[in-house]
Amino acid sequence: MTKVPFLDLKSLNAPFMDDLKNAACSVVESGWYIRGHYCERFENAFAEYCGVKYAVGVGNGLDALSLMLRASMELGRLHEGDEILVPANTYIATVLAVSAVGLKPVLVEPAENSYDMDPKRLKDAYGARTRAILVVHLYGRLCAMDEICAFANEHDLLLFEDCAQAHGARMSDGRGAGTFGSAAAFSFYPTKNLGALGDAGMVLTNDADVANMVRALGNYGSERKYVNKYKGVNSRLDEMQAALLLAKLPHLDASNERRREIASRYCAEIKNPKVLLPEIPATPSEHVYHVFVIRLKNEESRNEMQKFLAARGIETLIHYPIPPHLQEAYAHEFSGEYPVAEAMAKTILSIPMSPVMTDDEVSEVIGAINEF
Question: What domains does the chain contain, in order, with CATH numbers?
């Protein structure tokens, strides 16, 4: 019997149930279900929340990544075969998006203390065909953006962000996920810190040309109905998901703060010497703990810990068990060695993290880990 689920989506949305029902009814009664009033309102609200000029709703997070990159290609800023530096430790969607539009992903090893792209390794991955960097704020922690931005500026590289796990993460000066580069991609998959009740995504940018291009490409390549200027796709944020996200957005900061409270308890109260805890940033707001990842000394110990917790009714996951360069889809793509990413995949374990976890559930997790 499960005592502490990894994530209970029903409980996660329960506090907003009345608002969600009202929003859903309003959309149904409006008679307008694609690219209407709610999509525009949510785009404007999320752009303002993040601190950028433009937001374009799309179908999902992978589409957001692909369309963000494709827009730069259509605008002549990137070209087929250009190399994009991406993290070796990430969800496969980041790499898939680069490949899907005809660009070449080049992997950069993660930093041991953050799991994010290591800025000190950028120079080793940089080459004559490198044209951009695509960072991923993995697990909800902002990358070392000052160092990465400096490298991008020094080498005249475009900078893109995958913010699928970092909604609301901010530096001490107020700059947040989605504000650092040419454009940023967000996912609103139901498990995210700001999650829809289906698939949804968004591209953020301060560049009007990028915003207009993403909007056209996601609408069959059309700026005017039945006039197709580009070879586009069908990827649009529907009214229902936009309305539901608009209802949940005002609660995002409070939800993130609760995640930080739970993370603080984990870091303070987990005392097992076999467990390596994540580093807490000097500026707490830089991490929104989409997931909370611990590490064990080796794969055997990690697997034993996972079984031990499961026997006590505590669900866990691994983010991610196979790094991109070892996936069958990329069996012949990458020739380098990535020992840091591989070691992480063998030793990491994600423990329950949710803003609706009770204090007793948090204590249950802590007690079980300390008992191992």
Answer: 9-108+115-250 (3.40.640.10), 251-371 (3.90.1150.10)
